[in-house]
Sequence to fold (192 residues):
Amino acid sequence: MRIVCLISGGGTNLKALIDWQANDLLGGARIVAVISNTAAALGLERADNAEIPTKVLSHHDFPNRSAFDHALIEFIDTYEPDLIVLAGFMLVLSKDFVTHYDRRLINIHPSLLPKYKGLNTHKRALEAGDNYTGATVHWVTSEVDAGDIIRQVEVPIMGEDTEETLKARVLDAEHTLYPSVIRDLSLGLIEC
Ligand code: GAR
Fold:
């Protein structure tokens, strides 16, 4: 299963995928390219270190988002991917993009969807006084954070948690959740 990863930042989920791949734990899945919409993304360095081809494609270099999304499709398709993995990719993708990769596009989101779609998920969970939160891997559809859920993991919220400590605990859980979903997709254990 050929995977193209889209990132925008820290790339710690990408790092987890690279580590699982390096240890032969990703089933038949292989990351064939990493694309970032920002040149500063630390994830690009992680991919370089693992000798995975990288590309920066910035939406600021295109006249509009539709032109960017179509250029992104064109570039991604040169890698003939079976699966597109959004790993902290912080742009909302167009309907055309999402339709082109129907059932081939997954995302990880730092909450127990359908709770807390969008941004600031940890802050909202803390403000609501929730006892637990989590992370969700889901198929991407044109409605943001609303596609079918593939798998979730729960994470407890402690009394002394801040946004930062909670984010770190959720990220830690994401680093097992995402690779395990991708492994199971590649092994045919999850239906597309
Ligand atoms: C992760 O927590 C991921 O769930 C979240 O961004 C972080 C990326 O971290 N994604 C979203 O909020 C998508 N809407 P990373 O770059 O270190 O993997």
Observations:
- The pocket of glycinamide ribonucleotide is lined by residues 7, 9-13, 87-88, 108-110, 171, 174 (CB under 6 Å).
- The beta strands are 2-7, 30-36, 54-56, 83-86, 105-109, 132-139, 149-156.
- The two ends are 13 Å apart (CA to CA).
